[in-house]
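In response to reviewer comment 3 from the previous cycle, which asked for concrete evidence that the modeling workflow produces usable outputs, we include below a single protein chain processed end to end. The sequence was submitted unchanged, and the resulting structure tokens are shown without manual editing.
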Amino acid sequence: MNTLNSEAFVLFGQHILWSDMVGNLFGLAALALGWRRSIWTWPVQFLAGLILFGAFFGHLTGSAGKQAVVMLVALYGWWQWQRGKEQGEDGHIAVRFATWRERAAMAAAAAAGTVAVALLFTAYPTLSWDPWPDAYIFVGTIVAMYAQARGMVEFWFAWLLVDLVGVPLNFANGYAFSGFVYVIYGALVLWGLRDWWLRSRQAVQPTLEGAPA
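The workflow returned the following structure tokens.
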């Protein structure tokens, strides 16, 4: 792990770590696979989380904890997509917009989770250098991955909101490659959002609990 945490190169005055670079490249690949609705997005996300866990562990405990949760959610996503992959006519997961009830539940969970995690980080300063933005990214990532696991188009909106804070926070904490990758994430998210949006309009969806009549 010492080799992974060593410096790979310097870019625009920023020191790029091997672990930061490799982990985020896997994360970028996972997002691209999610756009294509490939079930391989989940094992790639798990691997990205494992590498970034090693990068953060020992000095950014809160970020390391986030990656541990990311790995657990990746396992849930794999199970969920395996279970529901026949829902789409092309053999991939069928995508849809969340119901208003689901949106309200995710928004409430994101708000309450962010406050709870931020208070935890504030009470234990060694867990995070920036408790509130780190908590926001932590919880936002989990909400986004949950929405992705459920095939919700809102997954992409959640990632956009995470990006707004993730880019400056990663640069500020010295993880320049993470910051650069988050910028690329933004472009991929826009393309993915367009693709899932169009697919959700083309698909014939069953009536869901809480959906408008």
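The two ends are 54 Å apart (CA to CA). We consider this sufficient to address the reviewer's concern, and the full set will be provided in the supplementary archive.
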